[in-house]
Amino acid sequence: MPSIHPTAIVAPGAEIAASAVIGPYCCVGERVVLEEEVTLISHIVVAGRTRIGRGTRIFPFASIGHEPQDLKYRGEESELIIGRNNTIREHVTMNPGTRGGGMVTRVGDNGLFMVGVHVAHDCQVGDNVIMANNATLAGHVAIEEHAFLGGLSAVHQFVRIGRHAMVGGMSGVEHDVIPYGLVMGDRARLSGLNIRGLQRRGFQREDIQSLRSAYQILFGEKGTLGERVEEIAVLYPEVEPVRHVVDFIRADSSRAICQPKSPNAA
User: Fold this and answer.
1) Does residue 122 have an active-site annotation?
2) Tens digit of each residue's pLDDT (9 = 90 or more) over 191-247
3) What's CA 228's distance to the chain center, in Å?
4) Is 121 a known active-site residue?
5) Strands 189-193 and 181-184, bridge-based pairing
6) Which is the catalytic residue, given 139, 162, 168, 181?
7) Mean pLDDT, the chain, as a whole number?
8) N or C: which end of the chain has fewer CB within 10 A?
9) Residues 6 or more apart whose Cβ sits within 8 Å of residue 234
10) Beta bridge partners of 51
11) Residue 99 class from Cβ within 10 Å (0-12 exposed, 13-18 middle, 19+ buried)?
12) Cα 239–Cα 262–Cα 160 angle in degrees, nearest 5
């Protein structure tokens, strides 16, 4: 039997795995699924059609699965799916999807969501993502694996953040951030590549150098962005990080690509 504190309220119909732990003063709704080894430490509310994956830990005062903050939401049976081994800290909020966004908000595995993080409706968050204190995602945002979002950063709806990208603290991100990119600023601009992050994760020196060279071509002054994308695709066909950047830019998106600040800009 799961460990359920006497002060917790678990609605009939909730599916609670045998090794789950529900701490003091938690409330768990009737359509919630808690997989093995999920831990709700205390004072947590989990509502709606929410599934939480094995080994995820949630800290006090988090609000998980309540209806989206979207005026178009009309009570549709949307879902929030949270993967395995995540750490969800105090006061985090995560909302389910909507009819206009595919009906599912999805969070991957092994993420760290620090105090006050918000994941809005219809977001798609990959594995090993870190969001620092009070980082916020608007609706329909896509975050690829190993991305890092600094504290107090905010991401505009429909923006994509590529894998291994880094968003500096207090940045407002209005445009798509390429994989391995580093952005910062009140209205974030591309500031180079997340070289330190790539080194820490064991990327080969040759691949990092190829990525540097591709970056210089991609954001140079010769030709159009589309032409430069095709150029680096031809120059580096076997370099996986460069292919990730090419595929990311080629993909459909409603947002422009975040670019470096012009050297002549004030």
Assistant:
1) yes
2) 999 999 999 999 999 999 999 999 999 999 899 999 999 999 999 999 999 999 999
3) 28
4) yes
5) antiparallel
6) 139
7) 96
8) C
9) none
10) 33, 81
11) middle
12) 50
The whole-angstrom separation of Cα 226 and Cα 169 is: 30
Strand partners, 176: 257
Catalytic residue among 29, 122, 156, 244: 122
Backbone angles phi, psi at 50, to 5 degrees: -120, 130
CB 231 within 8 A of CB 214: no
According to the CATH classification, is domain 3-140 in 2.160.10.10?
A: yes
Element spanning 230, H or E: helix 225-235
Q: Vertex 50, ends 103 and 9: CA angle to 5°? A: 145
Spatial separation of the C-alpha atoms in residues 241 and 222, rounded to whole Å: 22
Residues linked to residue 203 through DSSP beta bridges, in sequence order: none
Is 244 catalytic? The answer is no
Residue 246 dihedral angles phi and psi, to the nearest 5°:
-60, -50
| pTM score | 0.96
Sequence ranges of the domains in the chain:
3-140, 198-250
What is the model's pLDDT at position 263? 59
Three-state DSSP class for residue 206 = helix
Which pair of tokens denotes residue 173?
């991100």
Q: Shortest CA distance to 29 belongs to which of 9, 7, 4?
A: 9
Residue 265: per-residue pLDDT? 47
Catalytic residue selected from 53, 109, 111, 121: 121
Edge-to-edge strand list for the sheet holding 112-113: 3-4, 21-22, 39-40, 57-58, 87-88, 112-113, 130-131, 148-149, 166-167, 181-184, 189-193
In the chain, the amino acid numbered 225 is L
In CATH terms, the fold of domain 198-250 is Udp N-acetylglucosamine O-acyltransferase; Domain 2 (1.20.1180)
pLDDT of residue 261: 84
